[in-house]
Target: DUF1680 family protein
Amino acid sequence: MKKSIIFFSILFCLNGFGQTKAKNIHIEPINFSKVKITDSFWQPRLKNHAASTLNTCIAQIESNTGRLTNFVNAGKRSGKHSGIFYDDSDVYKALEGISYTLINNPDPKLEQTADDWINKIASAQLSDGYINTYYTLTGLDKRWTNMDKHEMYCAGHLIEAGVAYYQATGKRKLLDVGEKMVKHMMSIFGEGKRHWVPGHEEIELALVKLYSVTKNKKYLDFANWLLEERGHGYGTTGGNGEWDVKYYQDEKPVADLTDVSGHSVRCMYLFSGMTDVEKLEGNSKYTKALNSVWDDVVLRNMYITGGIGSSKQNEGFTEDYDLPNLDAYSETCASVGMVYWNSRMNQSTGDSKYVDVLERSMYNAVLAGVSISGDKFFYVNPLASKGDHNRKAWYGTACCPSQISRFIPSIGNYIYGTSDNALWVNLYIGSSADIAIGNKKMVLNQETNYPWNGDVKLTVQSLSAPLKKEIRLRIPAWCKKYSIALNGKTVTNLVLEKGYAVLEKEWKSGDQITLSMDMPVEIEKADDRVKEDLGKRAIQRGPIVYCLEEEDNKANFGFENLTKDTKFETFYNPDLLGGIMQIKTDASPKDVLNFIPYYSWDNRADSKMKVWIDYKDK
Amino acid sequence: MKKSIIFFSILFCLNGFGQTKAKNIHIEPINFSKVKITDSFWQPRLKNHAASTLNTCIAQIESNTGRLTNFVNAGKRSGKHSGIFYDDSDVYKALEGISYTLINNPDPKLEQTADDWINKIASAQLSDGYINTYYTLTGLDKRWTNMDKHEMYCAGHLIEAGVAYYQATGKRKLLDVGEKMVKHMMSIFGEGKRHWVPGHEEIELALVKLYSVTKNKKYLDFANWLLEERGHGYGTTGGNGEWDVKYYQDEKPVADLTDVSGHSVRCMYLFSGMTDVEKLEGNSKYTKALNSVWDDVVLRNMYITGGIGSSKQNEGFTEDYDLPNLDAYSETCASVGMVYWNSRMNQSTGDSKYVDVLERSMYNAVLAGVSISGDKFFYVNPLASKGDHNRKAWYGTACCPSQISRFIPSIGNYIYGTSDNALWVNLYIGSSADIAIGNKKMVLNQETNYPWNGDVKLTVQSLSAPLKKEIRLRIPAWCKKYSIALNGKTVTNLVLEKGYAVLEKEWKSGDQITLSMDMPVEIEKADDRVKEDLGKRAIQRGPIVYCLEEEDNKANFGFENLTKDTKFETFYNPDLLGGIMQIKTDASPKDVLNFIPYYSWDNRADSKMKVWIDYKDK
Model:
């Protein structure tokens, strides 16, 4: 097995790092509703999501907690509010997950559940459009007095759910509730009205979604107004009555941001909203800021797993290179936020470096957030464990389970995109996609055993008419050696642009592209400024970061040495942890180290775990 | 608890490093027969040694193996030789241990056992003086043909046993056997006779002992001749017919040695013999060589435990700074050899740096060689273990158990010494000593809880007449802060010479010296060239090196981080491991690390262990 050492600065390779965004690129994602995932890695996860994750969330929302009852009570304007002031958002996020699931897996019973919830939600909306069960049940006199009480955050998730359910079923009821809430907010806040800095961003990107569906530009403008509210001293009362401008990203106008600070999920949602607004307004007013904070996140504040926000203290960022392993926070929601933001950055630049980060987060930090069984969740994703950190069925603050519930069924969104000139292939996931490009219709099949294997076969199964466009294949940053063949003939003189191999011809039905990527085990090094990882290395193969669990390393745990001479063997084990490529070191039996994918840890008995391992340069 | 970081180069502090030996110092040790150990650390070990260790060795030699039967068979000149060609030495070393035990604990039954053995040994001596059961029983035609077959090594241990038993009982029989064997050797080897380079040194220092008892200068001359045989190409057939000059310290004349090489026990015995011969000849012909190899051993090739010889391959030295932990060899015999050699170096220089090393080896690498129960032994002393390295009751090559059997009862040798001008106090061990100095007789009492506490009280209990001499108290290299009081008055303007505090007055009966040494927990760093310990630290308190066993650190093993802010708590636990000072880190309960003395590891269930621990400078 080939093995190489790559010195990387958290993210080990950055295509085009330092470039400014190319403004004339505008990639539209192929919505997951058009992509049928058929592979053996994600497809079982999607099935499990419908069968297990969603049901877990539904049971928690309907029965085990008072989340749905809060809406019923609010509808009756009586009874107590239970839980925390932002709990409404979990119901909305689960509804978003249900919507996505219904798109690819119609299920009348599930739709009935959603309709029932939506009725209860709608009943909780006041006549002025306001909807928030916490204030309705604890005192409406206090609404819109504390910027950190998540009223706009919950509204944002309401909107995202409304849009998703409308797209899944054509039913507008929830969307209307959301739109009515937006109108309520716009009646109070905006140019010449009250100032407001949402303590937890989310509303901005949701308003952009609402704009995309309704084409009502006022919503985009309101999103823009909310972004521009920041950094002018308008932020006032936050949690506990205090307002920490760093924690809330309210230190300076967002266009002037250079560094990340504060709560990591809020950052991701803010940056997503900024990327959205700039793109739809067709300007580049946030480009410099976005490039700068992206560097700050990815080069100085990201774990090898693609997780971010190292501190439990603020659920967010601390000093550069402060990336503890045992005490890593790396909230699941923030990693999903990394996918959201990086996808948007890619769509407005055509640079694959954003998909490299997206992929790193998705296959590692995000996927670790849910158990193989689909019914247990991590809120916090450390890179080392003493065996006392375990997934739970639910959390008091349940943002992460509900985040997983809406993210997993949407992963089809991130595979393909189209722009004026090109079809973009970003992720390698076995699937069949109905793609509208130019005025042509293409069915594109992708066959691959990714992430376990780097061979990919793309077949233009049907095409309504010959198509003269580029097909751009992302060459992942982890990939050091690859070849591409077109209808069986190796392509020489390949053009590589911002990490994409550019293939240009008049495409016809039956055309076949094969991409063969070497996928050796790599020994990764963190930036020397990450003190926690000094003298240590991590193992990665393809996009998958590996770890050691004591379970598989009873004799050697605590003595896990790698050297530059360490050789690795890989073998697919279909019976372990849902089917994984295992890696073991090629040592004498008593010294073998057995690695499993990081995402698959803590799925057996409680076990110690570590990603970064002692390394000796001898 | 005060805590400091000391950067040390294996040995963390070297008093007078680089000095040449002062030739006019000649310290005579106070023999252990004059020192009654009364403390709570060593006294139980001496009792246990008599009750357990010796009986284990006796049972192995008499019954479980053929070691004693070899002598019986050799006496009959018939029967087979069992075991290995050097097994006679184990019988001699056990006899030496029995002799030392009889001195302080007369035991007619034990003496009867020794007499019985000695009769069997004597019966095995040929009429020409040759004694070696291996050749007698496998073919005398081959004797003196292979320099690595340990004939002189066994003869050396015979002499040491003979001297010891003579001193213990006044019985000369075994001494005579040894002397006769020496005469046999001197009839074959020497100036104008055959050349011979003993493959395993030992005979040289034994001949010096024989000279000291018999005053026959021929034995000293023969020792000198044997030392001078080396490095001239006389070494020929060794083990497997080959002769590796590095392995056998035969690369150059011993006076020209600059670096250590080869088998570590052989080195220690060679250097001990060189130090002895030079001292008794009253010259300094080996001084430069001894200083140079001492630096090489201590500064570049010694573990923090005082163990040496890192490689299993040659049971010896490899490259400088090659000090693996898990795979450390660090043979028990070699650590005892460090005590032997460093004691001699101290006696001819009056430099305490040698006692610092002696003490380090004695309390750590040597003491780990025997179980708390006294009946199990380590041959190999790693500084880390996966739990699969355990003491055994005996070994095929049993040099280490028999080495322990003779070393432990002799530790009283290393506490005091006298020279023309001074009484030297080297080790702090509660005891009562009958000291002859000048023409006076002194009874000196030492009270201390060393090594757990740095307070020492020395009382001149009786003195035949007032005595005008220096009393020199060793200030250990580990000690950074101390004070001395004389009859209750703190001594100011202390003179410190080569690591000794020099007290001068006319001593009288009843005089009392108190030495108070601060004994904080220290975080020790290895030389940066020791790759194995990069980014790691070890814990030491006083002379005791500590380790972590998984047994006491179930939750945290594998995640043992120290930082410069780590605080320590110490507490004496009389019920654990024979009574030890435990050290724990002052962290939240789930992060506490529990340290035990290195010497006490592997005395409970099989457990992983490590001395060097990850350290973060934050």
